[in-house]
Amino acid sequence: MASRSSDPEQPSLSSLGKVGKSSGEIDEAQVPLVNGERHYDSYSVLSAVLPFLFPALGGLLYGYDIGATSCATISVESATLSVTTWYDLSSVDIGLITSGSLYGALIGSVLAFNVADFLGRRRELIVASVLYLVGALVTALAPDLVVMVIGRFVYGIGIGLAMHAAPMYIAETAPSQIRGQLISLKEFFIVLGMVAGYTLGSLLVDTVSGWRYMYGASTPIAIVMGIGMWWLPASPRWLLLCAIQGKGNMQNLREAAICCLCRLRGEAIGDSAPEQVEEMLSELSYVGEEKEAGLAEMFQGKCLKALIIGAGLVLFQQITGQPSVLYYAASILESAGFSAASDATRVSILLGLLKLIMTGVAVVVVDRVGRRPLLLGGVSVMVISLFLLGSYYTFLDNAPVMAVVALLLYVGCYQLSFGPIGWLMISEIFPLRLRGRGLSIAVLVNFGANAIVTFSFSPLQALLGSGALFFIFAGIAIISLAFIYFIVPETKGLSLEEIEAKLL
């Protein structure tokens, strides 16, 4: 594979969803596939594991950073345990440490917009693993605050690239029957990383130079991720897109796609790989992927619809109060008489375990129940939970048990709905030739909204009060329900080509 287009690092999705009528359901008679049949991939479970696992480690490292940093800031401020001369940090300094990776992720998302299609998904993930490694080492070995913040920023750029490329690579290489489960399982890995970070941080928080060990612990995983991505094959869909856009020899790219598909599906695919590749090629041509994408196309026609769906979901994911609710977790549990609530680390571990369990439930049921039912059901309960929390802080402060129930319902239902489904939908909903740029915009919206909510929370809390703030979040969640009902389509069981042909 000498040409760039046949380089086994460049996978890509190939399709999307269109808004179904008012309910978002699919009209089976609308825009049939080229062959008129729905094809289900033959695959072995073992062969499907590694193309998911190595990209998902990027999510694990993202989650680990969130958990570890909450404990590392305690360690680095300790006069006796930090073993630094600059432990006396201001609130601005701590803010730079905690948010450095977030702003790095924003830059990574911007970079992804311009270089993702040039690098390809596989190479983008390799670059992300290198940035994870360098960022973690620089942070762990930092001789002063400035170097530490630089390390956090570099690590954050890795987060931005990984959270952009990982869902695309997984979606492009996963069998359609389990695509939803695998992409949702990436969210499970993010939460697993958070729990691991909280747990390891709580064990090391009283250790001399514990913060260095917390950040350094992520380096072996970054190395495994990089080696794994180097070994994995290209996405057959990406190779075929290059073929129909004239970026290489058609026959060579077709043969390369067949080889890659055989590696991805294992022995279960038998002799059907050439037939499946031809089917993909026909469907890519059918939905008009021959033209190379232009930037203006992102805001036209079906690409604009995909952008509204994807960016809208990740925006509501952030502005319906998730960071703010977690901020109140310790005080809510403490008011209800839980002794462990005075220890923020233990509270974080407990809530992390709840998030992990509920994300696991979403992984199991998403390809059976579907995306829309999980979103509609989960967000509906989130609305109720936010109203209960608003009521608690406004006029029911003598009912702490109700606040605890509302808190647990909110966290659990978020992980059933917005948490995994948001990332799943943005990985499915953009046309192949615009997928890199479309997903980079969605990821940028996600991290940007996160940064704004995190920054504005304390001023709004002081201005409006906690109760009013939760009522506002509840109102936004109601708007998100209407958005889901009228705009977001169901993509369960459809191949990426079918999503684009039938839903956009």
Automatic annotation (TrEMBL):
This protein's membrane topology, according to the annotation, is: Multi-pass membrane protein
Domain Major facilitator superfamily (MFS) profile, first and last residues per copy: 51-492
- Where do transmembrane segments lie in this chain? 43-64, 94-113, 125-143, 149-171, 183-201, 213-232, 306-329, 349-367, 374-395, 401-426, 438-457, 463-488
Q: Where is the composition biased (Polar residues)?
A: 1-11
The family database entries (PROSITE patterns) matched by this protein are listed as: MFS (PS50850), SUGAR_TRANSPORT_1 (PS00216), SUGAR_TRANSPORT_2 (PS00217)
Q: Where in the cell is it found?
A: Membrane
Does the UniProt entry include the keyword Membrane? yes
Give a GO cellular-component term.
membrane
Q: Where is this region: Disordered?
A: 1-23
Start-end of Low complexity biased regions: 12-23
**One Pfam family recorded for the sequence:** Sugar_tr
* Stored InterPro entries: MFS_dom, MFS_sugar_transport-like, MFS_Sugar_Transporter, MFS_trans_sf, Sugar/inositol_transpt, Sugar_transporter_CS
- The keyword NAD belongs to this UniProt entry's keyword annotation: no
Key words of the record? Membrane, Sugar transport, Transmembrane, Transmembrane helix, Transport
A GO molecular-function term, please?
Answer: transmembrane transporter activity
Q: Name one GO biological process term.
A: D-glucose transmembrane transport
Q: Where is the signal peptide?
A: none
Name used for this protein in its record: Major facilitator superfamily (MFS) profile domain-containing protein
